[in-house]
Automatic annotation (TrEMBL):
Residues 1-25 are annotated as: Disordered. It comes from the Bacteria. This is Uncharacterized protein. PANTHER family: ALKYL/ARYL-SULFATASE, METALLO-BETA-LACTAMASE DOMAIN-CONTAINING PROTEIN. It holds the Pfam family Lactamase_B. Residues 15-24 have a biased composition (Low complexity). It comes from Mycobacterium parmense.
Length: 418
């Protein structure tokens, strides 16, 4: 049992951030509990050994599959009886073809088809919009995997095929181990599930609480995804909390140990989500616009979760738009396909490029980099003074950022304006 001091200290402060995530290249799997092994990757893959074969939880990306397979075979080469997907994102399902055996049963929550179909129909769009955050990590990681397996040729992304699905719960008995699969549709996807080992009081939660545990989850992603409902997310946190796990095995990095510490973390996360939801709804009913609420809503001290992956302000906007949609009732122009960019050249002609640059620099001197960006982006992309303003403004924002997605985006914009 964790001490009171350990329980009160938010775990995110002592855990790695998203920048530490790497593709699978480890030389061996790591034992984290009796009969439970981890092969780390972009999303960790887990091995459960039993007296009647193996159970694997998540398979990584396609190019990671050979590493996970080799790591798990070195622990136990018995048949793979089951593969369980904790969610349908590509970094959980892509290594399936490398990891499964001819007799393997693949298991997922019943909404998996919707996520498979989304992934397939939007693959070019989502890949392009994610590249800025992961391209360097992937390039280095793929090289490490090629060295690890001794081949330049790596498998492509598997198309998931599921043999057994369920709506709410499913119990599997394998070689004397009992596994309870529990739907948590408020996770990163509506097909999210956790694997509960009741006899050991271990919960494998994947990315139910976001890729970086202890941080505010994204209710909608920067790369583009379906909105995630805040109340459903809260209910999913509660469902896992009610299990009273003694070991919480997350999708990345080390497990969280101790019933008291886990309870404290999940309580804190639940309360943070509830606070953001309730304050956003109250602000909407009071007639406040979304940007005002993004500025005003902050977390109280007893809801101290990190903002290294999601951010409170982003989730405020996600809650607002999930309830209210795309029309913000701010301008008639929202109803039509003519944006402000259509009159940017008119503004430049009327105000003069030099005057706009001067005013943008004044905003920078007053430490208003976002105001400066608004003005500089009115000018042509190749305007040298505007590019200089954009570089300085993005450098300032980057220096103040501790968020993975925000920092990746700002670095990409700096590269474009170099």
């Amino acid at each position: 049992m964790s001490s009171d001091a350990e329980q009160s200290e938010p775990v995110y402060r002592s855990r790695p951030g998203a920048e530490a995530m790497r593709p699978a290249a480890a030389e061996r799997a790591e034992r984290i509990a009796p009969g439970l092994w981890c092969s780390p990757g972009l999303s960790n893959a887990y091995l459960l050994t039993t007296a009647d074969g193996r159970v694997i939880v998540n398979t990584g990306m396609g190019f990671e599959g050979p590493v996970h397979r080799a790591n798990f075979d070195a622990v136990d080469a018995s048949p793979v009886r089951y593969i369980i997907f904790t969610q349908g994102h590509v970094d959980h399902v892509g290594g399936l073809d490398s990891v499964r055996d001819p007799g393997t049963t693949v298991v997922a929550q019943a909404n998996w088809r919707a996520w498979r179909d989304d992934n397939e129909r939007l693959m070019p769009y989502r890949a392009a919009r994610s590249a800025f955050a992961f391209k360097d990590t992937l390039a280095k990681g793929i090289g490490a995997i090629q060295r690890r397996v001794g081949s330049k040729r790596l498998p492509g992304q598997s198309v998931p095929v599921v043999d057994l699905d369920f709506e709410d719960t499913l119990t599997l008995e394998v070689g004397g181990r009992r596994l309870e699969l529990i739907s948590v549709p408020g996770g990163e996807t509506t097909d999210s599930l956790v694997v509960w080992l009741p006899d050991e009081r271990i919960c494998l939660c994947g990315n139910t609480f976001g890729p970086v545990f202890g941080h505010m989850p994204n209710l909608v992603t920067v790369r583009g995804d379906r909105y995630r409902d805040a109340l459903t997310a809260i209910a999913s946190v509660e469902r896992v909390r009610d299990l009273k796990p003694e070991l919480l095995v997350t999708g990345h990095f080390e497990p969280i140990a101790g019933r008291g510490r886990i309870d404290a973390e999940l309580t804190r996360l639940r309360d943070a989500l509830r606070h953001v939801h309730d304050q956003t709804v109250a602000g909407m009913n009071a007639g406040k616009d979304v940007r005002t609420l993004m500025r005003e809503i902050t977390l109280p001290p007893d809801c101290d979760v990190g903002e290294g992956y999601g951010k409170v302000a982003w989730d405020v906007r996600a809650v607002w738009e999930n309830y209210s949609g795309w029309f913000h009732h701010e301008s008639t122009t929202e109803l039509y396909p003519v944006g402000f960019d259509a009159v940017a050249a008119d503004v430049v002609e009327l105000a003069g490029a030099a005057a706009l640059v001067d005013r943008a620099r004044a905003h920078l001197r007053a430490d208003r980099p976002l105001h400066a960006i608004h003005l500089a982006e009115l000018l042509p992309a190749d305007h040298p003074d505007a590019r200089g303003v954009l570089r300085e403004a993005h450098e300032r924002l980057l220096a103040a950022s501790a968020n993975f997605w925000e920092s990746a985006w700002l670095r990409e914009q700096l590269a474009r304006n170099s």
